[in-house]
Amino acid sequence: MDVKQITPGLSVSPQITAADMAALKDQGFRAIICNRPDGEGADQPGFGEILTAAQAQGLEAHYLPVTSGMVRDEDAADFEMAMRDLPGPVLAYCRTGTRSATLWALSQAGTRPMADILSATRAAGYDMNGVARRIANGGRTPTDTGDAAYDVVIVGAGAAGISVAASLRSRRSDLRIAVIDPADIHYYQPGWTMVGGGIFQPGQTARTMGSLIPRGVTWIKSAVAAFEPQNDAVVLDGCRVVKYGRLVVCPGLKLDWAAVEGLEETLGRNGVTSNYRYDLAPYTWDLVQGLRGGRAVFTQPPMPIKCAGAPQKAMYLSADAWLRRGVLKDIDIQFMNAGGVLFGVKDYVPALMEYVRKYDATLNFFHNLVAIDGPARRATFDVAVPGGQPAQVTVDFDMIHVCPPQVAPDFIRVSPLADAAGWVDVDQATLRHKAHDNIWALGDVMNAPNAKTAAAARKQAPIVAENIVADLNGRSAVAQYDGYGSCPLTVERGKIVLAEFGYGGALKPSFPRWLVDGTRPTRAAWFLKEKMLPPIYWKAMLRGREWMAKPQKLTASAE
User: Are 245 and 150 in contact (CB under 8 A)?
Assistant: First the structure.
C-alpha cells in the first residue's frame, strides 16, 4: 500500500486489495471510500470484495465511483458529504489516488485558501494546479495552453501503446514522444489462459511498466480525463493539460463486470472465476484441480470481446485436465454462448467440433449471462433464439468460468473521438481517425472490424508508426492494415488450432501448411504459444523489432 495523508482525517492511495484491510485497521483507519468504478482495470478487485473484507475488520466502506478524469462538481459534493458522515480517519482510493485527491481539492474550494489546498495535496505527492485552474475558470479546464507538449502523444501503455512508441522511436529517434498510462504493471494478457490451465505461473505474465517504456519516451503516469481535438489537447486527471502534434489512442477496453448482476460480489469464491483477470486466473486452475464431478459452465458474452476464442480455450484446457485425471465422465460441461456460432471463421470450426465431441461438451447458443447467485451456485441466462420467444433460464453450477461483457472505456465513449457504439472511429485500412487527421488508433479500442487480439496490435503498431512518420514528412498514408488477427485455440495441453485471419474471415497463415496447418490441432502451434510468443512479445514487439510484422504498402483500392 502507498497511503498518503492529506489531512489528519483523510488519506488517499492507489488501488487496495481485500488483503490490505487488517493493515489499514492497524493504521487506525475507520472507513474507506472507493472512488474507482468496478471493471476499470484487468487486475482490479471489485468493490464487493473490498466491502466484504472491510466489514470483516469492522471498517465502514462507501462506494463513490468516479469515471477516470471526469470528476464533476456534484461528485465533489458527494465526497464532502461522505467525509462528514463516515467515521474518521478515512482512506479514499482510486487507481492512483489522483481522483480521490481531486475530489477532496474540489470539495474544499471556497472553504479553504487555494494555497492550503495545493500545499496539502503537493505534500502527498499530487499536483492539483490543474484543479486550481479549473476553479478559476468556472469549472472548465482551459486547453488553449498546456502543461506539456510533445510531437506524439500515445494514450495507453498496453501491448498497442508500447509497441507503437517503440516502432516510432525506431523510425524517428528525434521525436518527442509521451505515453500516458496510470498503471504500474504491464500484463501479457494472452498468457492468462495458460495460467488458468496450470501451464504458466502468474508472475510470467507481468512486468513493471517502467521497465518497458522505450528509452527516450516520456511516461506520464496519469489517467486521461478528456480529449479536445480542436485544441490538440488531452486533459489528465487533476486537470493538467498535455498538447500534441499527433495523437495515438490505444487504452484497450473495459471489462464490464457490473453488467452481470451479482457477479462482482462472488468473483474468486463460490466456484466463480475468470481468466480475464490476473488475480483470478490461478483460481480457475484451483477449481479445475479440485472438481471431481458436477457441472462446469463456461460463458461467452455478445461481441466484441478481447480474444473471441478465450472463453472456449478455458473450456478445452479444463476438460483436457479432467480427461487426464479420469474424472471427465462425471463432469457435465456446458458452454453458454450469447452468439450463434462456435467460432466466427468457419474454416476452424470442424477441428474445434472434434474437441467438443471428445469432451462431451454441450453447446448452448444465444444464451447470454445476466445474473449470478454465487452462494446458491446458480447462473441466469437470457435466451434469444432468432425467430423464437425470448426466455430466461437458470442453471446450477459447481464451477463457472465467466467471460465478462466488454465495452470501450468510459472516457472514450463520451469523447468526440467515438462512433455511435463508443469505439474510436477510424479508417480500417490506415487506422487514421475519420474526422481528425492528426489522430490514429489501434488495439482493442478502435472500431475496425477485426479480432481484438495482441497479435492484431503487433501488426497494427508498425502501420500506425509508418503512417505517422509519412504524415510528419508531408506525405499521405503509405501502409495499410488487412485486419490480421490470431487466436491460438488451446484445444488440449500440447496442441493448438492456430487461427489466423483478416477482414471478412480471410485466412492469413504466417507459416507454410506443411509446418503449421492452422485448421488442424498441432504440436508446432503449441510450441509457438508456450515457448516462442512470450519472448517475441517482451523482446521484439515491445521493443520495436517488427519480426513478421512489416507494414503492408497501401494499395490504391484501400485509399
Answer: yes
Chunked in runs of 10, what are the mean pLDDT values of the chain (559 residues)?
Answer: 93 93 96 90 84 94 85 89 94 93 89 86 87 75 81 97 96 96 92 96 95 96 87 85 96 92 92 95 97 97 91 97 97 97 94 97 97 97 91 97 93 90 96 97 96 94 97 94 95 96 93 88 94 94 85 70
Q: Which CATH architecture has domain 4-136?
A: Alpha-Beta Complex (3.90)
Residues annotated as catalytic are 307, 487
The pTM of the full predicted model, rounded to 2 decimals, is 0.84
- The DSSP bridge pattern shows strands 206-208 and 185-187 to be antiparallel
User: How far apart (Å, rounded) are the C-alpha atoms in residues 85 and 66?
Assistant: 19
- Written as nine digits, the cell of 67 is 469515471
Among 127, 131, 155, smallest CA distance to 141 is for 131
Residue 400 burial class via C-beta count within 10 angstroms: exposed 0-12, middle 13-18, buried 19 and up = buried
Q: Same CATH topology for 4-136 and 148-253+408-558?
A: no
* CA dihedral of 552, 555, 558, 559, whole degrees rounded to 10: 110
Helix (H, G, I), strand (E, B) or coil at 209: helix
148-253+408-558 fold: FAD/NAD(P)-binding domain (3.50.50)
